[in-house]
Design brief:
The protein has 383 residues and is an alpha+beta fold. The chain has 14 helices and 16 strands. Helix content is 37%, strand content 20%.
Length: 383
């Protein structure tokens, strides 16, 4: 059923459901009980993982709706040596008998259909880029890019990834080795992971909305229809794994978009941390899952106090050279940084570093605290 008419089964899944001797099911909401109809109960079984929507029959679909050329490409890739039709009938129940009729499954149409959007109009990905850090409606609407990607699952994955790559910015930051590095604003594995997960794990039974990738100056959020499936919650998704659409995920694994089942989210957290970025944020609200990555712009805002300290010391009354400013920024990040590491970081000689340090000391901005073991730098507050 369309999302607008769907009983909010997020509540179903999180609440207590009971049945009576007549096999009628009820859910307790507050001080009232609501009787669940067939669709409510069916959606509950999908959410709990007792059944898979990708196995649901598409009663109006026929063999003419299948792209057999693509099926042939796929079976060649996996080393299947019978015909394309044999594969669909003999594997994963892509074609099966339903009410004495040869029937095609939802997964078959989504993976191999000529036009999946004929049966799933909102099974698509929409990319929206905003100018700023939040969406502004009305006359001041700040949308600067709005693209829609249709087609098979593989088409949507490839098109979304390829387009997203053209919209990413680059940032220069100081690495742990003391060298400045230029990298994309998000680690490639991380942004690919949230896109592939959204397409692979979305609830295709919710037909009233699409997947949306929303890119802002300081973060990107991917919205995917559905709730956390099975026993997965936002508090355990790093080590508790459940596939809402196992056939679709197995297909994506063949094309190397999924490496090892269940390892992607944990690796994403680790890669964000290694890049000095905040950890991903997952949340579930109104039958949608939101996955958010925050970039260096966001981190800089969080570290405004550090930037303010630099501004306090480097003001229009002190005319410092570029090298002196770079050295000051390095010391702000690592008060124990050595002169050798400074030279490598700014790609200058040690003599240049020494001149910059002397300049900072002459302007009463820097002190050097020496000790027998480890020395350190002290940035002085300018009065």
């Amino acid at each position: 059923p369309p999302r607008s008419t769907l009983f909010p089964y997020t509540t179903l899944f999180r609440s207590n459901v009971v049945t009576n001797s007549a096999d009628e099911a009820f859910i307790r909401i507050g001080d009232k009980s609501k009787k669940l109809d067939f669709n409510d109960r069916l959606q509950l079984t999908y959410a709990k993982g007792e059944r898979y929507y990708e196995d649901a029959p598409i009663v109006d679909a026929t063999l003419d709706d299948i792209d057999f050329n693509f099926v042939n490409e796929y079976i060649k890739k996996i080393g299947y040596h019978k015909s394309a039709l044999d594969y669909l009938k003999e594997n994963n129940d892509f074609i099966f008998n339903f009410k004495d009729k040869e029937t095609i499954s939802s997964a078959c149409i989504l993976l191999f259909g000529k036009n999946p959007q004929r049966f799933f109009p909102r099974a698509r990905v929409r990319f929206v880029k905003f100018d700023g850090t939040e969406a502004i409606p009305g006359r001041e609407m700040n949308v600067i890019k709005d693209e829609i990607f249709n087609g098979k699952i593989l088409d949507m994955v490839n098109d979304s990834i390829n387009y997203f790559k053209t919209q990413i910015k680059e940032h220069t930051f100081l690495g742990e080795d003391g060298l400045f590095k230029t990298v994309p604003e998000y680690p490639e594995f991380c942004w690919k992971e949230i896109i592939v997960n959204a397409i692979g794990h979305r609830d295709y039974g919710i037909k009233g909305t699409d997947i949306q990738i929303k890119m802002f100056d300081d973060h990107v959020t991917v919205e995917s229809p559905g709730i956390f499936a099975g026993t997965v919650k936002d508090t355990n998704l790093r080590n508790n794994h459940f596939s809402r659409n196992p056939k679709i995920m197995e297909f994506l694994k063949v094309y190397d978009f999924v490496q090892e089942f269940g390892e992607g989210v944990d690796r994403m957290y680790n890669e964000m941390a290694s890049s000095g970025l905040p950890e991903p944020i997952y949340k579930e609200k109104d039958s949608m899952i939101y996955a958010t990555l925050r970039n260096k712009d966001y981190s800089d805002k969080v570290n405004d106090k550090v930037n303010d300290k630099v501004n306090d010391k480097v003001n229009d009354k002190v005319n410092l050279t570029d090298n002196a400013i770079k050295i000051l920024e390095l010391i702000m990040k690592d008060p124990k940084i050595t002169r050798i590491k400074m030279a490598k970081a700014i790609n200058k000689s040690e003599a240049t570093v020494n001149r910059a340090i002397r300049e900072l000391k002459d302007n009463n901005l820097l002190d050097e605290k020496k000790s027998d073991k480890n020395g350190s730098w002290v940035i002085k507050v300018k009065k």
